[in-house]
UniProtKB/TrEMBL annotation:
Its main location: membrane. SUPFAM superfamilies: MFS general substrate transporter (SSF103473). It is a multi-pass membrane protein. Residues 1-59 are annotated as: Disordered. InterPro entries: MFS_dom, MFS_sugar_transport-like, MFS_Sugar_Transporters, MFS_trans_sf, Sugar/inositol_transpt, Sugar_transporter_CS. The keyword Coiled coil does not apply. The gene is SMKI12G1520. The chain crosses the membrane at residues 68-87, 119-139, 151-170, 176-198, 210-231, 243-262, 331-353, 365-384, 396-415, 435-458, 470-492, 498-519. Pfam families: Sugar_tr. Belongs to the major facilitator superfamily. Sugar transporter (TC 2.A.1.1) family. Residues 74-523 form the Major facilitator superfamily (MFS) profile domain. It comes from the Eukaryota. This is GAL2.
Length: 573
């Protein structure tokens, strides 16, 4: 793509001017809409071409789902990084209850039995999240330096080093602790680069579904981790925990090998001036010929964004806090959405599931954890439909409301029926069964809404120029809050028992209102169109009616959707 010399923006312009270039190109890259015979929904979805646009298709044509099997499988290979995170979550919850693990890394009671103190349990479980937080910030740079694919291979290699240190631990808990930090560094990098690569190679009408596959892989890892713990729990030696850890090598090697088949991000290729490679990457992902005019139109739009980023220069960390370019607003949204995902209370069940359900009187809490894993994994398949058909906002709002109801019932039954009058032993098996049922309802609601959508939002909301930095910050928020919940949960539950559920209930109320007022709908939009949505200052609760400039009819009134100087509570009226 070339720009006329007399129209080329000068290099001294600030990032805002660069974004104006992208917006201008977006409007000029397609012929303007002249006809009013199409509905706004058809125009927004790109299913209709306004009159006068016969020469160049507005969109790469959608094909039957059977045509996208290959790209879907390739995205699953990228999403497999989530499996390694889920595997850790599923296995560590069992490790802290296994006899050999307690004997090697715990302390001894006067009666000779071994145990892990609340502090040591919290550190061993939760330090992984701190490693992930730093890994997301530090190692995600590999995606910008070496490409998304090579960057992923690098961070997976770091993960392998951490696993080796853990397996080699004999009886020093701090060696195992260090290994979890290092493996966390690798998973933190994966959590940034995996959704990023999927969002950049997936066809836009499948982007939400395919990014959600990252969460699907997390749930698969949790479920199979539970099953592996159940299969090894009857051993009396280190097989209990070393076999599940050893399998991590197989998962890592599979992912590194599978990445060789995956196309590189066309946006990264354009940054490296590998335009022909970028064209073939777009064509491969969308199952069309590289010579298709729609591929060239898509490539031109990406190149416009890349040129704008180059004009603005290298992004600094300080630029993340710019309100003029709307980057800070998006960063804050990503950080808070990831924080709220943890404050739903999901890891209360996933990290400490075996301990929680032992407290409700179940003899084999490992079996209960497997049930939770099955519900979690199966429900995530349903999320592949909800994220693109219901949209991001509706998923988050519906999820917050339903999880709140489940958490209220879970906590209330636990407080009033399971431990009435402060008794130390469960007094009602029926109460325990009721809590298990509503835990499963809660997991279903979480797995179909907040679990995948939080990753989708952080993968698609940021400009290319600052994308890796913003995604790293948002992911770090997830990991830090995950650490806080994992570390403090043993202390809190020992002090207030199931009153803890009311804390999560309050958080769910807060996140419902936050999503309503501050999270826009981005279903069906390309990454470049999402940038335009933010630049035009559309009110989040009106964003479902927004249509990209390239697909607007003459009767479209943007001002009805935009921010003005009124406070948000008056703007709603």
């Amino acid at each position: 793509m070339a720009f006329e010399e007399n129209n080329k923006p000068v290099a001294s312009e600030q990032p805002q001017a660069a974004e104006d270039l992208v917006s201008s190109f977006s409007k000029d890259s397609h012929l303007s809409a002249q006809s009013q015979k199409y509905s706004n929904d058809e125009l927004k979805a790109g299913e209709a071409n306004p009159e006068g646009s016969e020469s160049v298709p507005m969109e790469i044509p959608k094909k039957p789902m059977s045509e996208y099997v290959t790209v879907s499988l390739l995205c699953l290979c990228v999403a497999f990084g989530g499996f390694m995170f889920g595997w850790d979550t599923g296995t560590i919850s069992g490790f802290v209850a296994q006899t050999d693990f307690l004997r090697r890394f715990g302390m001894k009671h006067k009666d000779g039995t071994h145990y892990l103190s609340n502090v040591r349990t919290g550190l061993i479980v939760a330090i992984f999240n701190i490693g992930c937080a730093f890994g997301g910030i530090i190692l995600s740079k590999a995606g910008d330096m070496y490409g998304r694919k090579k960057g992923l291979s690098i961070v997976v290699s770091v993960y392998i080093v951490g696993i080796i240190i853990q397996i080699a631990s004999i009886n020093k808990w701090y060696q195992y602790f260090i290994g979890r930090i290092i493996s966390g560094l690798g998973v933190g990098g994966i959590a940034v680069l995996s959704p990023m690569l999927i969002s950049e190679i997936a066809p836009k009408h499948l982007r939400g579904t395919l990014v959600s596959c990252y969460q699907l892989m997390i749930t698969a890892g949790i479920f199979l981790g539970y099953c592996t713990n159940y299969g090894t729990k009857n051993y009396s030696n280190s097989v209990q925990w070393r076999v599940p850890l050893g399998l991590c090598f197989a998962w890592s090697l599979f992912m590194i090998g599978a990445l060789t088949l995956v196309p590189e991000s066309p946006r990264y290729l354009c940054e490296m001036n590998r335009v022909e490679d970028a064209k073939h990457s777009i064509a491969k992902s969308n199952k069309v010929s590289p010579e298709d005019p729609a591929v060239q139109a898509e490539l031109d739009l990406i190149m416009a964004g890349v040129e704008a980023e180059k004009l603005a220069g290298n992004a600094s960390w300080g630029e993340l806090f710019s309100t003029k370019t709307k980057v800070f607003q998006r960063l804050l949204m990503g950080v808070l959405v990831q924080m709220f995902q943890q404050l739903t209370g999901n890891n209360y069940f996933f990290y400490y599931g075996t301990i929680v359900f032992k407290s409700v009187g179940l003899n084999d809490s490992f079996q209960t954890s497997i049930v939770i894993g099955v519900v979690n994994f199966a429900s995530t398949f349903f999320s592949l439909w909800t994220v693109e058909n219901l949209g991001r906002r509706k998923c988050l709002l519906l999820g917050a409301a339903t999880m709140m109801a489940c958490m209220v019932i879970f906590a209330s039954v636990g407080v009033t029926r399971l431990y009435p009058h402060g008794k130390s032993q469960p007094s009602s098996k029926g109460a325990g069964n009721c809590m298990i049922v509503f835990t499963c309802f809660y997991i279903f609601c979480y797995a179909t809404t907040w679990a995948p959508v939080a990753w989708v939002i952080t993968a698609e909301s940021f400009p290319l120029r600052v994308k890796s930095k913003c995604m790293a910050m948002a992911s770090a928020s997830n990991w830090v809050w995950g650490f806080l919940i994992a570390f403090f949960t043993p202390f809190i539950t020992s002090a207030i028992n199931f009153y803890y559920g009311y804390v999560f209930m309050g958080c769910l109320v807060a996140m419902f209102f936050y999503v309503f007022f501050f999270v826009p709908e981005t279903k069906g939009l390309s990454l470049e169109e999402i940038q335009e949505l933010w630049e035009e200052g559309v009110l989040p609760w009106k964003s479902e009616g927004w249509i990209p400039s390239s697909r607007r009819g003459n009767d479209y009134n943007l001002e009805d959707l935009q921010h003005d100087n009124k406070p948000w509570y008056k703007a709603m009226l």
